[in-house]
Amino acid sequence: MPTDEDLRRAYYWESRSFAHSNHNNLTLEARKNRLRRLWQARWHGRIKMKTDKQQWHKVFGVLYGHRFVWWASEREFDLREPPLDGILFSGHSGLAGVSPLVLSEIGPQEQHLVVSVFGRGQTGQQKVNLLVPTAESKVLFEDAVIDACSDAKIA
């Protein structure tokens, strides 16, 4: 007959795995609620980004109101760190054409997933290139940018 200690040892890794999975689900649910209720986000997700002459790097982006902001990861967002940077869709802003130089840097299978947006950054007019994961998320992101730019403008 197994003792309590035998059962604890037998199910230790399984219980850790379950607890980790449960924690991840709770974190994801909390993030979704925060994005929906507090931020009222039009779009959010993991993307690759390139600004000016930088390399492509992975970020977590949120489009809310007239702003698009990004963090280095979802974890930074969950920990309520300030965003790395952002763009304000005010005045001359919106979707932009993708540069052939940017398209030449990525594979042909990903070229249809690139989106360029521009707006007011911290130092003036700024353009960022984004590589979204799917064609569906590209359409949703572009629609959200168009909605943000067509709402009543802010000064």
Question: Could you please describe the fold and organization of this structure?
Answer:
- 17% of the residues are buried.
- The protein is an alpha+beta fold.
- The protein has helices spanning 4-38, 74-78, 100-105, 135-150, and strands spanning 41-51, 57-64, 67-71, 85-88, 94-96, 114-121, 124-131.
- Helix content is 40%, strand content 30%.
- The chain contains four helices and seven strands.
Strand ordering within the main sheet: 4-3-2-1-7-6-5
> Helical proportion?
40-55%
What is the radius of gyration?
Answer: 20 Å
How is the main sheet built? 7 strands, antiparallel
Strand % is 25-35%
> What structural category arises from helix and sheet content?
alpha+beta
| SSE sequence, one letter per element | HEEEHEEHEEH
Say how many strands there are. Answer: 7
Distance between termini?
75 Å
Shape: elongated
Mean pLDDT figure: 88
Question: How many separate helices?
Answer: 4
pLDDT < 50 stretches: none
Describe the secondary-structure layout.
Elements: H1 4-38, E1 41-51, E2 57-64, E3 67-71, H2 74-78, E4 85-88, E5 94-96, H3 100-105, E6 114-121, E7 124-131, H4 135-150
Antiparallel strand pairs: 1-2, 1-7, 2-3, 3-4, 5-6, 6-7
Brief sketch in words of this structure:
It contains four helices and seven strands. The protein has helices at residues 4-38, 74-78, 100-105, 135-150, and strands at residues 41-51, 57-64, 67-71, 85-88, 94-96, 114-121, 124-131.
Keywords:
155 residues; alpha+beta; 7-stranded antiparallel sheet; 4 helices; 7 strands; 30% strand
